Amino acid sequence: MPARYWYVILTYILMQASSFLLYPFLPWIRDQGWDLSLIINWWSVVTFLLAVIITCFLLRSDMRAPAMRNATGAGMTILWIIIGFFGAYVGQIIAASIETYLLGITPGSENTSVLMEAVRQVPVFVLIVVVCAPILEEIIFRKIIFGEIYKRTNFFVAVLVSALLFGLVHGEIDHLLTYFSMGVVFAALYVKTKRIIVPIMAHGLMNLTVVIAQFYLTPERLEQLERTRQQLENMQTIIFGG
Which end of the chain, N or C, is less packed with Cβ atoms under 10 Å? Predict the structure, then answer.
């Protein structure tokens, strides 16, 4: 594997671990009466942006290189982004259903809840969720890890390793199958189109949809939807007799 790929992985690891640098300053931060979660969220915004910049710099030769042989054209690239978005969404639904009804895992993602709290507190954090994270994760887990293993083995081995790592990095073992399903879809997109921008955009659209849905589905809105559902059931009972 080229040295620049190792540097990209190292950049990602250091970015993820950089929050530990704040720990020696925790007593001082508390003494100042500052909001620790606010500081951590802004720290994440800065470090993610720096990681994206460093990654793009390290991969500048890859970005200048001609497209891979048989790579999709502009029109098909856009089409596959849309297909990939819906494919990942369907894969998530199937995986979540298996987790809930076959494995007995409680629905809901703690990781998503934490990220949404960060977005509410620091709105610019949405750039991390929708732009920076998809760029870094697709470059590392699809272009580098999947791509390098795929060259030496086959699709199944490469997707097994890369998708599992993709799920583990998100820190939710209970929902590993959901993340794994997304990893499979994004890897398939990369193989089909030969363009890393396709899984990046599909991933970004997935995250954007979650952000919009989370903001729309407030507790008040959920209560309203539940009342609407009950009213429809009552109407069905009246009209059809049960």
Answer: C
Cα-Cα-Cα-Cα dihedral sign, residues 165, 196, 49, 114: negative
pTM as predicted:
0.84
Mark 168-202 as b/e (b = at least 16 C-beta within 10 Å). Answer: eebebeebbbbbbbbbbbbbbbbbbbebbbbbbbb
d(CA 81, CA 206) in angstroms, rounded, equals 11
**pLDDT tens, the chain, 242 aa long:** 889 999 999 999 999 888 888 778 778 777 777 888 888 889 999 999 999 999 999 999 988 888 788 889 889 999 999 999 999 989 888 988 888 888 887 777 777 778 888 888 889 999 999 999 999 999 999 999 999 999 999 999 999 999 899 888 887 888 888 889 999 999 999 999 999 999 999 999 999 988 888 777 655 554 564 565 555 555 444 444 44
In one-letter notation, the amino acid at residue 202 is A
Q: Looking at 117, 138, 148, 170, which residue is catalytic?
A: 170
Query: Cα-atom radius of gyration of the chain, to the nearest Å?
Result: 21
Q: Using CA atoms of 105, 111, 112, 116 in order, give the dihedral in degrees to the nearest 10.
A: 150
Q: Residues in the chain, how many?
A: 242
**Alpha carbons 114 and 19: distance in angstroms, whole number:** 15
Question: Would residue 137 show up in a list of annotated catalytic residues for this protein?
Answer: yes
- DSSP 3-state assignment of 170? coil
One-letter amino acid for residue 88 of the chain: A
Q: Looking at 137, 138, 175, 203, which residue is catalytic?
A: 137
